[in-house]
Specification:
The chain is an all-beta fold. The strands form 2 sheets. Strands 2, 4, 5, 6, 9, 10 and 11 form a 7-stranded mixed β-sheet that branches. The chain starts with a strand and ends with a strand. The model has no long low-confidence stretch (mean pLDDT 94).
Length: 114
């Protein structure tokens, strides 16, 4: 129901752009965003954005990552600049509905080499 794309391998200081689109039986989405999970670590927030454009993200990505809603309904993008090796993780697209349901994508690998 959530299809993510755009991961890959990049050198430190480089950029990647992730995209995610919801399809099928996904209704009432008011928040979309990205989470990541590095090996041996818990899944953590990268950035979320509401339908009204309110963004939530940790200090670790502020100034480097930009989240935006796409022109197509229920799409979201994550522009990642100045990537660091510690950004290496599997990145998951997520969508949250007004009714309390949440949807997750299959994950896309981002690897930043030093």
């Amino acid at each position: 129901q959530l299809q993510a794309s755009g991961g890959g391998l990049v050198q430190a200081g480089g950029s990647l752009r992730l995209s995610c689109a919801a399809s099928g039986s996904v209704f009432g989405i008011n928040v979309m965003g990205w989470y990541r999970q590095a090996p041996g670590k818990q899944r953590e927030l990268v950035a979320t954005i509401t339908n009204t454009g309110i963004i939530n993200c940790p200090d670790s990505v502020k100034g480097r990552f930009t989240i935006s809603r796409g022109n197509t309904k229920n799409t979201v993008h994550l522009q990642m600049n100045s990537l660091k090796p510690e950004d290496t993780a599997v990145y998951y697209c997520a969508a949250f509905s007004w009714s309390g349901l949440d949807y997750w994508g299959q994950g896309t690998q981002v690897t930043v080499s030093s």
